[in-house]
Amino acid sequence: MLTNHLTFAPYNSHRDGDVGELFCDYKHKDHQLKFMGVSKERMVKYLEKSLSKPNMQSISLREKGRLVGLIALQSLPWMSEHFGLRMFAVPHLLTNSTSPLVHARLLRYVIEELQDVDFLDCRVAIDDIYSAHALEICDFRYVGTEIYMGQVLKSISPPKSRPDYNIRRCTPQERDQVVQIAGETHVHNRFVCDPIIDENATKSLYERLVTNCFEDNQFNVLVAHSQGEVQGFIITKMNLTFGREVGQLSGSLDFIGVHPEVRNRGLGVALNQWALYHLAEEKAVFVAVRTLANNYPALAVCFRTGFQITSTSLHFHKWVRRPAIDHRLSQPYSRDAL
Questions:
Q1: Are residues 187 and 257 in the same domain?
Q2: pTM (2 decimals)?
Q3: Which of 116, 118, 168, 244 has a Cα-to-Cα distance from 75 of 20 to 30 A?
Q4: How many Å apart are CA 40 and CA 43, to the nearest integer?
Q5: What is the pLDDT of residues 203-232, one digit of tens each?
């Protein structure tokens, strides 16, 4: 491929109807799909439809009229407000080239031409070497490795009750205790590994993530209650839209936290078991969870409750230096925003 013959344009579903070929040729998540029992064809259709969502902005790359690459950006509005940056995730970085320079051309187009982008958050499969090399070429910062796990739910009986804990749905009166535990326990956070991000905003990130779940009916919050206090929590989610598109109801374990004083006593395992039971009651067939590769306690809990590794991703950040950003990042973060 001759990089001087490449042209860029906003993605157009009519003109770029062959984008499905790029998704189909991406092999790095095939094991995950096979484990889930989801066909590649249905997944490709789901991904194609996702490019037209209002919060997505995609750029196509063509060579002599033929589609050869695509980069997609997903806006992150509340995280942008939280950190004071216009933040975007990069859910797709695809080319049919075996040269990382073509991937890098897509990244550089976004960095140089899209002036509303301050910060890029990009995950790539661990064996997607060309994308990883392109991110390094464009000075992205590696901030962690994520382990993706899953299990197919079968008939699940209610877990055995524990005499010392009552695990049930969270009440509005217990939300403050849940948020406090989240702030004390979620140190395995990729933003901690990024020295550019404000430290106070990083520490409060999971408090806000958990707070956002309380009023969203996609999520279910369970708490472990003992002696009048919340000692741990777990948050689950039913991914109904994804399930309808791929023909399989799926759920996820999104957040778990155990009070530091009661760790290593089996409470994390019990919370996982009850969460899986509740998802099975909601007819979920497959459940996913992810965590950073250095979060060994969480990995141990997941393995003990039936999860298996389905894929691994490398996580990168890119701070796009623009004149106004240095000032914003230097400002202290106010907890009043919560």
A1: yes
A2: 0.89
A3: 244
A4: 5
A5: 788 899 999 999 999 999 999 999 889 999
